[in-house]
Amino acid sequence: MKIRVLGTAAGGGLPQWNCGCAECGCARRTGAARSQDCLAVSGDGRAWYLVNASPDLRSQLLAAPELAPAPGTRDTPLRGVLLTSGELDHTLGLLTLREAARLAVYATAPVRRALHRAFPVGPLLSCYTEADWLTVTPGEPVELAGGLRAEAFALGGKRPRYAADLPGEGEGDRTDWVTGYRFTEEGGAARVVYAPGLADWTPAVERAVAGADVVLLDGTFSTADELAERTGGARRSPGMGHLAVRDSLPHLARRPGPRYLYTHLNNTNPLARPDPPGAAELAAAGAAVAEDGLLIEL
Ligand SMILES: [Zn+2]
Q: Could you tell me if residue 165 is inside a domain?
């Protein structure tokens, strides 16, 4: 299995265009920028899938040599996109893929509905390409090209803001507005977990992480009060669907074995800096911060 980490920042990226905070200032000075959360995964190194489609997708694809088309063709190795949520920083890039001859998009039922109604990417894309929308159900594995298998696990009912009032059948109670994925390889043992929006360390997370080789997880905020302290607001990270690094680290330390990598870092997070404070504490729990462009081969 191969993984290319395309982007490691939360919505807005680092630096964010309208932010002059210490972290954004540091990124502007040093050039140590981060693009928005996105991953590419392949079972055989030839057929590739994106997990999420970030607003930075075009430059992310151009920076990944394995995602280039064969010379003289439009035969892209990209087979489809799996979504972990309907958030704009995970879906705006779908429009960037409109030149595709064909595109498979995997999403849970509520996310799929949101992307056909509240934010109608589905109808828009259908004017440009043949998009196949496939429903993902937590706990039911999906077989993908190249011997890759993806199994979603539910992470919570936090809707994107644009879909706050979307009517639906019982969707207020649904826990699959946000999901993670566990990837396994046909005939192989490699297991990779991707969960960029982790609100709580639930039994479903515990099961997904068990026996994994690599776990990429939510590193949006360092502490639950980080955003409130930086912006003077009142929003705490659990209410925003993000378990702070300080609060997930003890769970990692209890489950040694996988290589843990924090991703989806908000631009207020000091861990987004080069040589961040607190790196030693992460290392002690078998964790580190993922970097844009990181290639993992298992
Ligand atoms: Zn900032």
A: no
